[in-house]
Amino acid sequence: MGGDDPRRQVPRTDDMLADPRLAEACSRLGRPLVKQVIAGVQELVRTGTLPPGDVVEESARALPATAATLRPVVNATGVLVHTNLGRAPLSTAAVTALIAASGTTDLELDLATGRRGRRGKGAVDALCAAVAAAQAALIVNNGAAALVLVATALAQGKEIIVARGELVEIGDGFRIPDLLVSTGARLREVGTTNRVAFEDYAAAVGPDTGFVLKVHPSNFVVRGFTSSVEVRRLSALAVPVVADVGSGLLVPHPAIPDEPDVQSTLAAGAALVTASGDKLLGGPQSGLILGSPELVEILRRHPLARALRVDKLTLAALEATLRGPRPPVSQALEADTDRLRERARRLAARLQDRGIPASAVDSAARVGGGGAPGVSLASAAVSLPSAYAAALRTGQQPVLARIERDRCLLDLRALDPQTDDVLHVAVTAAQLSMAAAVEGEAATLNQAGLTRRD
Fold first, then answer.
1. CATH code at position 357
2. 154 and 279 inside one domain
3. What's the start-to-end Cα distance of the chain, in Å?
4. Would the pTM of this model clear 0.85, i.e. be above it?
5. CATH of the domain at 125
6. Do 321 and 437 belong together in one domain?
7. Contact 378, 91 (CB under 8 A)
8. How far is CA 342 from the centre of its chain?
9. 412: closest CA among 356, 347, 367, 355?
10. Tally of domains in the chain
């Protein structure tokens, strides 16, 4: 091999690890991960893509911020609770509580007596304080787990009465009836797809009935010749009524008046209400069960409850969400449209000053996460050419936008005003990367004696 063979010019891994920046990264991220990044950069030198003298600098630049593969993404889609982005972003109070709980805590210890304490008491008390009609509560690891525990503890070997039009399928092919049947319960379907009456429920109630289930359709709306039975009417039946409200709205909200909430559903007579903690509540992933003290205690003592319980981090974040200031989802839901428009105008003007074809436009946001289907929330966005969407998504700070009418929209409703500076930097970087890509393509074609065709 010649002396200029790239493979002979690759710096040794041990020599690179001696660099202070990479040595510090080993203590923060772990030596194996840093070596993995170095190996990838060394390969660039071997292929002639990177000069040998830049290998340490490029390795330091390529290091991830944390030892985990999850990356923070700016949610500019206009979907407030985006399932693919981890649903509700946590409040600062919740993040602070989560960090404080990451070490050893009094999770199951009463510090005053030195004896064993009730796990999650603080979060349960906060939940009951937030929902006046709740006499008791239990927290499990997600909304589906809440429904599984209720069905297993109250209806295993029995019947669950449910309207045919409420046997729904939610994201990723997940079907409520399959979940319920897996617990050993039997489904007693009543009514038709579009209509059900109180008499249908009453006729189905019998000695084998575990409970009547009321399921919020969540991610779709049925209109036209329809009828359903409210919880208040169902509560006259001689069996418990369990209502799955899904989205985690604890009390009524004026922005989404038709969305069922836990407080109103319990006040209407439901024995138990199940919901998610990481949707409209704005907390960590969790399943909430609120209602009758007797039934909640049956669930708490059931063996399956141990398998579905949440960890100390979830309990800490949930309690802080309930006791602390309004979480980001609530702030986004209540955002002032005029202020959103002003933010969009300012950001678009700053981008225009950089030669970027940006404009401020009105937009329509939505709740997402199965909440308030069909409800549109007035919003504002920065409009860019559609080509920016991919460059923003794959940038150093990923930004997920929305493509609408062949335009890339950066909707601001789900974003804190401080994020506007982040968007400015990300769009500017996207412009530079797109320009570099075009120049690189032109150079390649030029070398081949071809001309780029637009």
1. 3.90.1150.180
2. yes
3. 42
4. yes
5. 3.40.640.10
6. no
7. no
8. 27
9. 347
10. 3
Q: Token pair of 361, please?
A: 């436009």
> What are the φ and ψ backbone dihedral angles of 175, each rounded to 5 degrees?
-115, 130
Tokens for 353, please give them.
Answer: 């000053």
> What tens-digit pLDDT sequence spans the chain (454 residues)?
445 655 567 888 998 999 999 999 999 999 999 999 999 999 888 888 888 888 889 899 889 989 998 999 999 999 999 999 999 999 999 999 999 999 999 999 999 999 999 999 999 999 999 999 999 999 999 999 999 999 999 999 999 999 998 888 776 677 889 999 999 999 999 999 889 999 999 999 999 999 999 998 766 677 777 889 999 999 999 999 999 998 899 999 999 998 999 999 999 999 999 999 999 999 999 999 999 999 999 999 999 999 999 999 999 999 999 999 999 999 999 999 999 999 999 999 999 999 999 999 999 999 998 788 878 999 999 999 999 999 999 998 999 999 999 999 999 999 999 999 999 999 999 999 898 877 666 666 666 666 555 4
- State whether residue 251 is helix, strand or coil: coil
Ranges of H-type helices in 337-418: 337-353, 388-393
Are residues 100 and 146 located together in one domain of the fold? yes
What residue numbers bound the domain in which 375 lies?
74-83+331-447
Distances (CA, A) of 442 to 391, 433, 448: 18, 14, 10
Helix and strand tally (H, E) in the chain?
Answer: 19, 15
